Amino acid sequence: MRIDVLSIFPEYLQPLNLSLIGKAVTDGVLHLAVTDPRDFTTDRHRTVDDTPYGGGAGMVMKPEPWTLALESVVRAGGDAAASSCARTAPEAPETAVPAVVTNPAQTTEPGAATSSLTVGKHSAAPVLVVPSPAGEVFTQRIAYELAAEEHLIFACGRYEGIDERFIDNARTEVRVRPLSLGDYVLNGGEVAVLAMVEAVTRLIPGVIGNPESLAEESHTGGLLEYPVYTKPAVWRERAVPEILLSGHHGRIERWRRDQQLSRTAQRRPDMILALDPAQLDRADLAV
Ligand code: 6GU
Fold this sequence. Notes:
CATH topology of the largest domain: Alpha/beta knot
Domain tRNA methyltransferase TRMD/TRM10-type: 1-76, 124-272
Order of helices and strands: EHEEEHEEHEHEHHEEHH
Bound molecules: 6-chloroguanine
Family: Belongs to the RNA methyltransferase TrmD family.
Strand content: 5-15%
Strand order of the largest sheet: 5-2-1-7-6-8
CATH architecture of the largest domain: 3-Layer(aba) Sandwich
Shape: elongated
Main location: cytoplasm
Catalytic activity: guanosine(37) in tRNA + S-adenosyl-L-methionine = N(1)-methylguanosine(37) in tRNA + S-adenosyl-L-homocysteine + H(+)
Number of domains: 2
Number of strands: 10
Helix content: 25-40%
CATH superfamily of the largest domain: SPOUT methyltransferase, trefoil knot domain
Structural class: alpha/beta
GO cellular component, one term: cytosol
CATH class of the largest domain: Alpha Beta
Largest sheet: 6 strands, parallel
């Protein structure tokens, strides 16, 4: 998978170098690059934003630098897909590069095609995620959908957002998905992108060490996870629930399921209402 992030604060995305995502990049499972729209400005002040038409507080991101940045990463993704299609011999392992690569403004070579941004015949158009509190709420289901894509692009607006014409124009080249983390307001999309990229990339085969740990976690079976315990069996006079030391696998499974049900009912009654009744057994109904 290829992930491009457009941000005027590339340093904000540095945590993507760490841990499992950083390793996925070094392993070549994931290609990750951050592009700064400011590198696509031509004025002396490298202006990326301006005051909103119609008045109001804050600043709005200008469409031109954002579109040039988007076009450069769409083109880069298309080129990479085309060259990997053409290749028949197995690829040599890539040399180690910094996990987050900053894409410098590419000055177009004379004679190079600038208008056509067609991607390879066999690859789908990239998905442009626009993080915004005005978006559809990002869920585990959406994380799975995005994990199946070849090329994701995240456009991190700041302040009051990006000029709507950037998004309207982008629809001619990419599939646009405005996504929100939830009902609260952040200063910009960067922190939301850290969360979404982590949720998506951990679903890519080869990124997480143990794929079985994906199956059991919260939000995969429609219920929250059961509580977990480790040694010592008694800690500060608090004992681990006896059932877990009993060795009765069937009873332990039942206990965990009951914990999931009561915890979900208490914390997330909306999830209980959304359950498929066909997925409940007789014992579930006794909780
Ligand atoms: Cl995705 N962006 C911003 N700026 N604020 C948010 C959000 C996203 N999700 C919740 N609040």
